[in-house]
């Protein structure tokens, strides 16, 4: 049975760098990278290139803007560690393709999407590390789409955290195992 680790934090908090190091350590120097980004503009192209430049030959990349559970299943047969980067971009892909008219259906569909990821990770032989932005600590977004994104990301992060063996919060490049702290006070 596969293990799940969630790495979360704000933008540019060091989530991906920490998760990359952790994946290579767990995977014995090799890991699978599930990339969820779709490149539509120069800004996203730059961000993707920054991530790619940090990775060397130790990584096998699987492009998965949709149906990423299938890539987790494949990668889990060949690697000891899988890095899924990132959940919030995956949610953006989902949100841009979704019917936005019904809030309940949108939330239910998102829960189904995240359950598929969790099931695939648990049924693999690998440790799957999910990277996700913590978007609930900022101001309330001014538009409806941004509020929906924030809410869906919060739902996804809670679902992943509840099913994770470890949950790391990154701040200023440092990671703290918050699930371990949470268990101490429960």
Kindly describe this structure.
This protein is 50% helix and 21% strand. Strand 2, helix 2 and strand 3 form a beta-alpha-beta unit. Helix 3 runs parallel beside helix 5, helix 4 crosses helix 6 and helix 5 packs parallel to helix 6. The model has no long low-confidence stretch (mean pLDDT 92).
* Helix-strand topology string: EHEHEHEHHEHEEH
Uncertain runs are none
Overall average pLDDT? 92
**Number of helical runs?**
7
**Beta-strand segment tally:** 7
**End-to-end span in angstroms?**
26 Å
> Which of globular, elongated, flat, extended, rod-shaped describes the shape?
globular
Summarize the topology:
Blueprint: E1 3-9, H1 15-26, E2 31-35, H2 42-54, E3 59-63, H3 68-76, E4 81-85, H4 87-97, H5 103-123, E5 127-133, H6 144-162, E6 166-171, E7 174-177, H7 178-185
Parallel strand pairs: 1-5, 1-6, 2-3, 2-4, 4-5
Antiparallel strand pairs: 6-7
Helix pairs in contact: 3-5, 4-6, 5-6
List the keywords.
186 residues; alpha/beta; 7 strands; 50% helix
In short:
The protein has 186 residues and is α/β, with parallel strands linked by helices. The chain has seven helices and seven strands; from the N terminus they run E-H-E-H-E-H-E-H-H-E-H-E-E-H.
């Amino acid at each position: 049975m596969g293990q799940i680790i969630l790495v979360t934090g704000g933008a540019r908090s060091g989530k991906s760098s920490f998760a990359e190091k952790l994946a290579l350590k767990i995977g014995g120097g090799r890991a699978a990278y599930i990339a969820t980004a779709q490149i539509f503009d120069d800004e996203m192209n730059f961000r993707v290139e920054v991530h790619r430049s940090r990775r060397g030959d130790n990584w096998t990349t699987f492009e998965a803007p949709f149906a990423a559970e299938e890539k987790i299943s494949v990668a889990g047969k060949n690697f000891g560690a899988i890095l899924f980067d990132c959940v919030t971009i995956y949610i953006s892909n989902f949100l841009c393709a979704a019917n936005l008219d019904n809030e309940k259906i949108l939330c239910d569909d998102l829960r189904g999407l995240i359950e598929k990821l969790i099931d695939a990770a648990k049924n693999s032989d690998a440790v799957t590390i999910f990277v996700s932005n913590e978007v609930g600590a900022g101001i309330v977004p001014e538009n409806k789409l941004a509020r929906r994104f924030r809410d869906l990301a919060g739902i996804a992060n809670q679902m992943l955290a509840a099913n994770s063996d470890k949950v790391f919060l990154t701040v200023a490049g440092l990671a703290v195992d918050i699930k371990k702290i949470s268990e101490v006070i429960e």
